[in-house]
Amino acid sequence: MGRVQGKIAIVTGAASDPSLGRTTAMTLAREGAKLVVTDIDEQGAQDCARKIRDAGGEAIALRQDVVSEDGWKEVIARTIETYGRLDVLVNNAGIAVLKLLDELSLDDWNRQINVNLTSVFLGTKYAVPEMRKAGGGSIVNLSSVAGLIGLQRCIAYSASKGGVRLMTKSIALEVGKDGIRCNSVHPGVIWTNMQAGARDSLSKEAGRAATANFPIGRLGEPEDIANCVLYLASDESSYVTGTEFTVDGGMTAM
Ligand SMILES: NC(=O)c1ccc[n+]([C@@H]2O[C@H](COP(=O)([O-])OP(=O)(O)OC[C@H]3O[C@@H](n4cnc5c(N)ncnc54)[C@H](O)[C@@H]3O)[C@@H](O)[C@H]2O)c1
């Protein structure tokens, strides 16, 4: 039996490779969940679903822009149509607009907040009624260390991720009585396409150098985050809600 055997899970932002969404989707599928993988990049999402099926799992892929309310209604409806219920939502899709205050336009700000924060509100709003019908569920929101501490060039990004952190707690208060749990995950420096593109194509070597003085002196890998999401999606965490899981190799402990 897998650790999330038979659970129905949506993972947003699962196209990019390497990425946290893709590895999380593959990990949940390996542990027995049936997946709906979504992304604004439809081809990448299809590729992720194909790899899950090739490995013996179950998955469908849908194109989704997480800022679209109608898009969320469609994703939830297709999930119910395909699998009959919803147990797990991983709000993972995100972007990093990393600019200094003088460079940051209102458009940049709005795009950052919409993609990283408003999307989590929308996903939760439309997932919760289905989780209530299923008798409970687990919502896992990808925040960041930038939702815990201030970082250079992270004015809008930090605002979005700090918002995710506290919205997660408020959601947890409201839905706990329905058997629904809601937690946030705060990755540090994890090697993905986002990280590689963050600072004008950061090399993996430069990433390694930047993390060498962390207590666990290595770059994070997508599996480090996927394993945390797996725990939160599973019934092993049935008494865990409204809390934050920092997975950063000790970066914020320094
Ligand atoms: N990689 C890290 O070090 C790190 C650290 C902290 C937090 N995070 C967070 O983890 C999550 C995943 O990050 P990642 O590093 O895997 O990023 P990534 O850029 O590798 O992948 C993000 C995915 O989200 C998709 N996406 C972007 N905008 C979208 C939209 N509007 N609608 C639907 N899909 C959209 C992209 O197409 C891509 O497939 C993000 O929320 C990110 O902020 C990552």
Overview of this structure, please?
This protein has helices at 20-30, 42-54, 69-83, 106-134, 155-175, 193-198, 204-211, 222-233, and strands at residues 8-12, 34-39, 58-63, 88-91, 137-142, 180-187, 244-247. The model has no long low-confidence stretch (mean pLDDT 97). Helix 3 (69-83) packs parallel to helix 4 (106-134). It is of the alpha/beta class and 254 residues long. Nicotinamide-adenine-dinucleotide (NAD) binds at residues 12-13, 15-16, 19-21, 39-41, 44, 64-67, 92-96, 115, 142, 144, 187, 189-190, 192-195.
Which keywords apply here?
single chain; 254 residues; alpha/beta; Rossmann fold; 7-stranded parallel sheet; 45% helix; globular; binds nicotinamide-adenine-dinucleotide
Could you write a compact summary of the structure shown?
The protein has helices at residues 20-30, 42-54, 69-83, 106-134, 155-175, 193-198, 204-211, 222-233, and strands at 8-12, 34-39, 58-63, 88-91, 137-142, 180-187, 244-247. With 254 residues, the protein is of the alpha/beta class.
